[in-house]
């Protein structure tokens, strides 16, 4: 899957951006915490008893901590591209339920083939290009019948900010996000079986556009596309963007839309089913508004 050249991601820039934001990430990652909690809840009902769990794109370790609590006998590996994030994960790690920390690229996992029972990845895959490479690695490390649960962002994400910047100048200021159907196609190409996808629209509220941009900076979600403007953004362009964003204001607040794609699939081989039991996942569309 090839994205337009102007939206190509600078992988070193992704790493550097999240490394710099590691100390401020938790203070602004409310959406990320909400999505991770939803993804964790979706593991209920599967009766999973994994021996090895990989938190892919672990960030500050919130997911890894929850996974270790959920599966206390499992070896939980928190893997992230940014060393600063893993340092924060170490600081927040409970003494009695430790997890391993590995600094590596999701597209080149330093793990043996068929060595992981559960891969969990929340809001990281949008930073992987091409997505096929990350999915191929997930498929490679999953044991036969292993489970993959993930969330990522769809193209409606930050649509208001994208529109406002489009009226201010001709540069990319918001990353490109892949459509749910393309995500599903990538899962199939990777050989992951029984893929299921659904979408959740979440809307955050901000008093002004700069508050949104400040939160994005705190979590490390910088624009690192090839078509991004190089150099400082002038006051005039910033003012034009803020003025354009005001067209979206309602009830005293500015919305910031996130299109969250939830997905799941099984590794190669037979899917484990307990005797006399059956698990069915029905795709549905969930609409939820979050205000703060």
Question: What descriptors fit this protein?
Answer:
eight-stranded mixed β-sheet; 292 residues; single chain; Rossmann fold; globular; disordered C terminus; alpha/beta
How would you characterize this protein structure?
The protein is built from ten helices and eight strands. It is of the alpha/beta class and 292 residues long. The protein has one domain: Rossmann fold. Strand 2 (75-80), helix 5 and strand 3 form a beta-alpha-beta unit. The longest helix is centred in the N-terminal third of the chain and has 12 residues, at 30-41. Mean pLDDT is 88; it is low at 273-292.
Give a concise summary:
With 292 residues, the chain is of the alpha/beta class. It has helices at 11-20, 25-28, 30-41, 62-70, 83-91, 131-141, 159-166, 180-190, 209-219, 235-245, and strands at residues 52-56, 75-80, 100-103, 116-122, 142-153, 193-206, 254-266, 286-289.
Shape: globular
Major sheet size, sense and barrel closure: 8 strands, mixed
- At CATH level 2, the architecture is 3-Layer(aba) Sandwich
Radius of gyration of CA atoms, rounded to a whole number? 19 Å
Beta-strand residue percentage: 15-25%
CATH level-3 fold name: Rossmann fold
The CATH class, by name, is Alpha Beta
Structural class, by secondary structure, is alpha/beta
Terminal-residue CA separation: 37 Å
Unreliable segments of 5+ consecutive residues: 273-292
| Number of helical segments with 4 or more residues | 10
| Overall tally of domains | 1
Number of strands: 8
CATH superfamily: Vaccinia Virus protein VP39
User: Helices and strands, in N-to-C order?
Assistant: HHHEHEHEEHEHHEHHEE
Mean pLDDT: 88
Q: In which range does the helix fraction lie?
A: 25-40%
The strand line-up of the biggest sheet is 3-2-1-4-5-7-6-8
